[in-house]
Amino acid sequence: MSIVENINKINNEISETATLVAVSKTKPNESIHEAYDFGQRIFGENKVQELVQKYEELPKDIEWHLIGHLQTNKVKFIAPFISLIHAVDSFKLLKEINKQAIKNNRIINCLLQVKIAEEESKFGLTKNEVEDIINSEEIKEFKGINIAGLMGMATNSSDKDQVKEEFNSLNNFFTQLKTQHPTLNILSMGMSGDYKIAIEQGSNMIRVGSTIFGGRL
Ligand SMILES: *Cc1c(COP(=O)(O)O)cnc(C)c1O
Fold first, then answer.
1. DSSP 8-state assignment for residue 26
2. Given the CA of residue 213, which atom of ligand 1 is nearest to it?
3. Does residue 190 line the site of ligand 1, with CB under 6 A?
4. Ligand 1 pocket, residue 24 CB under 6 Å
5. 100 with 72: CB under 8 angstroms?
6. Does domain 3-212 have CATH number 3.20.20.10?
7. pLDDT digits (tens, 9 = 90+) for 99-147
8. Four-residue CA torsion sign, 208, 21, 71, 116
9. 192 C-alpha to center of ligand 1: Å?
10. 3-state secondary structure at position 169
11. C-beta separation of 166 from 155 below 8 A
12. With 0-12 CB in 10 A as exposed, 13-18 as middle and 19+ as buried, what is 30?
């Protein structure tokens, strides 16, 4: 199926319940153009250098999301234009995003990445760490950031019950945090292999790459 057919199919499956981030990492500009001409405006990338290059070359009304790990020293390259940073996993990184946002006269939307997978993953905060950050006094002084929600990745497993359990636990945590922090709106969970389960478990933003653009080498 074509890129456009793939996007259409996903949009029909998720109807209006979730926002689709088309993950275009490693894919050429022509592929992004195909999706763009069909109306897709939100694209996700996981490498800063590739993201900056695509930002420069492609239409300026694209909303770019950084979905992968972000190093503190690279924040400055994306701060002028990034719409949403999905994988914030430290206070130090938030502080730098705030600093660069202010320099650019912007408020940058961020999601805190929560570790939900059983497998040993390098990145992500524990639920306690998320609470500590969100409830800290310092965060209130950060005028350049908006913590818009949470992001999580389930274990890469064919065990659907396990994936469901992990998404469910993040959704519960999100719902509970939201009662005290009503500005949290986004729950980013679900990729090609598990977005249907993620949506059933309350996701309102999915990040889908290979199902749209084909496999990556
Ligand atoms: C690559 C990537 C995706 C998309 O993965 P697919 O399996 O190709 O849909 C989603 N989220 C993150 C964080 C990624 O790095």
1. T
2. 8
3. no
4. no
5. no
6. yes
7. 999 999 999 999 999 999 987 776 899 999 999 999 999 999 999 999 9
8. negative
9. 7
10. helix
11. yes
12. exposed
